[in-house]
Amino acid sequence: MPKDQPVIDLSPKVSDEVRKTTCYMCACRCGINVHLKGGKVAYIEGNRDHPVNQGVLCAKGSAGIMQHNAPSRLKAPLKRVGPRGSGEFEEISWEEAYDIAESWLRPIREDNPEKLAFFTGRDQSQSFTSFWAQGFGTPNYAAHGGFCSVNMAAAGIYTMGGAFWEFGQPDWDHTKLFMLFGVAEDHDSNPIKMGIGKIKGRGARVIGVNPIRSGYNAVADDWVGITPGTDGLFILAMIHCLMKAGKIDLHYLAQYTDAPVLLNSDPKSPEYGLYMRDENGKQLVIDRTTGKLTAFDQPGVKPDLSGTHRAKGITHRPVFHQMADMYLSDDYAPEAVADRCGIPANRIRAIAAELARVAFDEAFELDHAWTDFRGEKHDTMIGRPVSFHAMRGISAHANGFQTCRALHTLQILLGTVEVPGGFRFKPPYPKPATAHPKPHIGMTPGGPLNGPHLGFVHGPEDLALKEDGTPARIDKAFTWDNPMSAHGLMHMVISNAHAGDPYKIDTLFMYMANMSWNSSMNTGGVMEMLTDKDENGDYVIPHIIYSDAYSSEMVAYSDLILPDTTYLERHDCISLLDRPICEADAAADAIRWPVVEPDRNVKGFQSALCDLGARLGLPGFVNDDGSQKYADYADYIVNHERRPGIGPLAGWRMGETGLQDGRGAPNEGQLDQYIKNGGFFVSHIPDGANYYKPWNKAYQGWAVEMGIYDSPQPYLFTMYVEPMRKFQLAAEGHGDRQPPDHLRERIKATMSPLPIWYETDQQGNDGFTVNALTQRPMAMYHSWGSQNAWLRQLHGRNPLYVPTKLMRENGLSDGDWARVSSPHGEITVPVMEMAALNDNTVWTWNAIGKRKGAWALDEDAPEATKGFLLNHLIHELLPPKGDGLRWANSDPITGQAAWFDLKVRLEKVAAPKESRPEYPPIKSPVGKGPENLTWKVGK
Questions:
Q1: What is d(CA 795, CA 779) in angstroms, rounded to the nearest whole number?
Q2: Which of 745, 767, 783 lies closest to 821 in space, CA to CA?
Q3: CB 607 within 8 A of CB 633
Q4: Spatial distance between the Cα atoms of 54 and 48, rounded to a whole number of angstroms
């Protein structure tokens, strides 16, 4: 080497300290190592020891540095001083902010708690925020699930006790055929990427079903560019093929599902279609060995799929008979559905045949002995190496609940749930719907609500109705309009409150829910509702309290701002009581903790709720002497007990002889133990207990030890959801609680106890024939990413992607602009051609477009001038039907927002200066970011 060659340090010191915590840049909750220099964040990498990501980290996770240092961070509590929407605020102290909040909240709590509507976005602390709302006494609480994925979650729990994503995962170690439906790249991204890499390395096949071929579908071996909203029809056609060919797991169906359970088959009976039960309420089957009627769970019973029973003049037939009657019908033959699905009949048959071939011809056994809930011992575990995964793409339709149920039923018929190679539940699931609470609405002025807000109804008697039959909740959840709305209807809160339907509210309290922009349908209308005044000159919604870490669009439409921290500055709890980080083979939870301290006058929202709860004297937030019970959220995490021995965290609890897991008394050093262990806790399921969880005695016993159950809870998968039949019976005129007449036919038509498919075409779509969708890119998540200096370089603007066919029909080329209109409104946006796309579907990335003035962005930022939202084209209400009623743009069963039922038309137009609609800039309390963002830690 020449003497004058410079010496370069090829391994510079990255940091002088590493602190391990949990990422917050999407819902994966990966483990991260946060490198610090001089007490500031210098670098973020994946934690190789973490069970979720094993060191893998995506662009979002690495870019958390910029999220933490974003110029748009709020700096102090704010009080509005100008008109709503002006963005004019003055900074105030936390004491004054609490005084204002208390002055609004205390009177309504003491007089009429329903006047508070408390709704939160993706906060991942729902067990805590719901506890606060329950203590306040309002029935009006829910989180973001109603406009995200309630169809998937509720359908899974009602059908089999859990669903995809946080509820379960494919058996990546054994699956040979993996099929995805409607999965975008932002949710569960690292585990999915790792899993696909693992199975493709073994030569397994991946089938992607999605109108758009991007992300996971781009690496699939086979892409099915289905017509949006027809997934359920496609799935039921495959069920038709499998049943007709006899390619279903009859033993699995008989032993572990309700297929052999007897149903009342007399159309004249008021119990027509209900299970036959014994005096203890247990479902009855015919024992194949004895031929006698018996409860499903009796030792040694072998349920008969074909046996019938006649009693008191009524014949009772097994669920399986009804399934055969329904799905063997030619209505579900591939030839009958192909045109609507956009999939040739022979291709539907080929995919069904491939599912059957892998499930049965490539079946295998694991040498794991286990004992089932009937006491039968098994020497091995049968593996069926077919697995599925699905998300919002099939969920966000008005037929999404039944579509999700159809997919779960397909898995069950193949015998691929909770077996080696198939879909596996993550603790604390499986939990059937009957193990969850029912919704509660019992209010007492000055006191708490009489139970949890959200839950699972099992018939009309569980609906959230007042004595006069009107909705008890502002969002109309758990009513005849949306009977099984397990997550509430957050997208309807502002619209209903503004209309005073079912009643007026006083205070809207929201956390991290950008309802004046990308989290709302009918964006322009919502902004008008938030600023509308009554005949007295007062705001129709009198008070709005909002908490966020950033100067989002919603900030300008609020009266009081409680500034949150960034995720690196606060405590969080990813709990088994809520949405933990479990794997199929282990229970796991995690924390976030302040790896750096805030440099602004901000406070974690959960800690602010501890303070407000104490000031208001809420039960659970004050001691017997009235003093504050929890100093902050960290104090709550450690010392709160939901029931004796069960707290937010399962690791390192106190037992009689020392530390123990699962159950135990609070441990003052618990958070320190989590920090020492990398921010997480794991307890592995014993070998032999990790499959067949709903029926495996060993798993049930372990779950009781961990505090997941208080007693063993084996159950049958319910392909036939009896509560839905109870609602149909009510619509047919049976029972004391009756639906309004205008909903009878809809209830009868949509609430089939066996999965069905129905059209989602909405009133007023004449002339609007093109499907329009959004999905999120892997590098973005909700609206937070667009103020991140690194991520903006990946997605600073978004075109409308148009298939080749529609580009040619409309004379469009890349870079042209198009007017896109719907029955509700129109936008003008740039277009780009995409060949790998359903030929009657357009789409764009969601949440890229920003309003001028928000997020500390320049007014000429590409997000505000070229970026756009499809939200302007969607309404929270369906077009009027001429009956004077307000019909929500939601699934009629769960109330999930039907984002993906949007239909539009295209028209080429001259290029405007900016995308439309154009809204005037809003003033931001944090101003604009620097012209050139320079940021470096250390030397």
A1: 8
A2: 767
A3: yes
A4: 4
Q: What is the CATH number of domain 94-151+434-568?
A: 3.40.50.740
Environment class of 246 (CB within 10 Å of its CB; exposed 0-12, middle 13-18, buried 19+): exposed
Half-sphere CA count of 713, side-chain side, radius 13 A: 18
Structure tokens at 181: 């439906």
Q: Which residues contact 259 (CB under 8 A, 6 or more apart)?
A: 253, 303, 305, 318, 319, 320, 323, 719
Beta strands 116-120 and 89-91: pairing type?
unpaired
What is the location of CATH 3.40.50.740 in the chain? 94-151+434-568
Report the residue count for the chain.
939
Read off the pLDDT of each residue in 669-679 and give the average, rounded to a whole number. Answer: 98
**Where are the CATH 2.40.40.20 domain residues in the chain?**
770-909
In whole angstroms, what is the distance from residue 372 CA to residue 698 CA?
A: 8
What is the Cα–Cα distance from 193 to 314, expressed in whole angstroms?
Answer: 53
Q: What does the alpha-carbon distance between residue 303 and residue 792 come to, in Å, rounded to a whole number?
A: 58
The pLDDT value recorded for residue 184 is 80
Q: Helix 400-414 vs helix 150-160: angle between axes, to the nearest 10 degrees?
A: 40
How far CA 525 is from CA of 84, 178, 551, 640, 661, in Å, comes to: 14, 42, 21, 41, 50
pLDDT tens digits, residue range 747-758?
999 999 999 999
- Please give the model's pTM, rounded to 2 decimal places: 0.97
Structure-block tokens of residue 559: 């009266």
Cβ proximity of 417 and 717 under 8 Å: yes
In whole angstroms, how far apart are CA 321 and each of 265, 324, 412, 546? 11, 5, 16, 53
What is the SS3 assignment for 591-638? EECCCCCCCCCCCCHHHHHHHHHHHCCCCCCECCCCCECCCCHHHHHH
Angstrom distance (rounded) from CA 89 to CA 481: 39
Strand partners, 388: 179
> For residues 417 and 430, is the Cβ–Cβ distance under 8 A?
no
- The three-class DSSP label of residue 525 is helix
Q: CATH 3.40.228 spans which residues of the chain? A: 230-424
Instruction: Please give the structure tokens belonging to residue 841.
Output: 């579907």
Structure tokens that stand for 355 in this block: 């599912």
Pull the structure tokens for residue 858.
Answer: 């320049």
Q: What is the pLDDT of residues 341-370, one digit of tens each?
A: 999 999 999 999 999 999 999 999 999 999
List of residues 6+ apart from 315 with CB closer than 8 A: 265, 266, 308, 309
**Peptide linkage before 428 cis (omega within 30 of 0):** yes
Which CATH code is given to the segment(s) 230-424?
3.40.228
- Name the nearest CA neighbour of 52 among 27, 22, 30, 26: 30
Domain 770-909 has CATH 3.30.497.10: no
